[in-house]
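User: Predict the full complex structure for these chains.
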Amino acid sequence: MNLLLLDEPDFVSADRVLLRGRRLQHMREIHQANPGDSLRVGLIGGLMGSGRILSLTAQQAELEVSLDQPPPPKLPLTLLLAMPRPKMFRRILQHCATLGVAQIVLLNSYRVEKSFWQTPFLQPDSIRENLLLGLEQARDTVLPELHIEKRFKPFVEDRLPELLGDSLGLVAHPGDYPPCPRAVDGAVTLAIGPEGGWIAYEVDKLIEAGLQPVQLGERILRVETAVTALLARLG
Amino acid sequence: MNLLLLDEPDFVSADRVLLRGRRLQHMREIHQANPGDSLRVGLIGGLMGSGRILSLTAQQAELEVSLDQPPPPKLPLTLLLAMPRPKMFRRILQHCATLGVAQIVLLNSYRVEKSFWQTPFLQPDSIRENLLLGLEQARDTVLPELHIEKRFKPFVEDRLPELLGDSLGLVAHPGDYPPCPRAVDGAVTLAIGPEGGWIAYEVDKLIEAGLQPVQLGERILRVETAVTALLARLG
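Assistant: Here is the predicted structure of the two-chain assembly.
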């Protein structure tokens, strides 16, 4: 936790917060913080700054906070991600929040196992928790937007062209395609398939919607690795 | 497993292998392979090609193999990595093998917890197993070389300059440094610190040895994410 994230209900007055639970435990056990210490803090969706510990017990901590710095800018990037295997999904949420993805659309695909959609990691509380872990790591306060699209065809035909707008649309797919561009200025919409890849029909539909197919070399990457590698290359 | 890796002891004649254990189980359960099917195969450290299943039982599989394609080239990259937390170490080994790192040097650092060096994941069999998992994912046959350097100062003073040779030496560290270069032609030696980063003394010693400090933006990445992001940016 490189940033202690605060939420509106933590505030007991304009510049005072009371913390319990996971954040209190982390301050005591990992930071080994004491009264008088200052920590980097940020308000979820708002500014960052510092928090001075006024008191700290096994039950709660009281901090005086001063918020005056903007969070780092987001990547102007929308990630269309075929719903990954649950354990990997959790880590990808964290990676995306850490790397600054602005928007995530979870998409169905032929090779997404139906059971993946049943995972408790798709519960709003769990999604939020994992995105917050990623923000705490990166020192950011702004949650990526996340949308769930369980029907591939209606989404790609009816909503993707509008979502794409003026952004550069890319679909990552192994094959005889141009290499993924580097250091792109401006907004990008990037589609990454499931383990085993998109099927040909899906690639065709994504191209019809305005995305350009690109590849990342002959090595086959796990989805988790591909997400980070593509974002690093584009960013 | 996108490539079935074979080892010399698997061969019962010049073009026949017998497989048991994990690979047999994977063929049966994941590939749901049957006699007559062909699979991509590769000889560890050697060529890749295809293997036709001659017979397949619960006990063993016999394949006729034909090896005629070279593995993909390695990245001309030596990674100097401060020894990570064991669970992350395992995944980083897999990522490095998948991404094509040629050589890994595990290095001590002030912020590496002593207990990390006690992990069973540092046993040669475990290192090999995780590197093989990464190669199977990427479709590569050549294991990265791995060296362990538990003493920072003697390594950096006495051996690093020679290891560096004519390669571009970089040390990733947050701070007021130039951004990490992109798409570097030629060999690179890249040093990545532990969670919490190198200490100033270590950065100074690495710079003395010929490495240039570079940064990857204001977001703080987990080591695992930083490894993939830096390799993708350099590669």
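The first strand of chain B starts at residue 4 and ends at 6.
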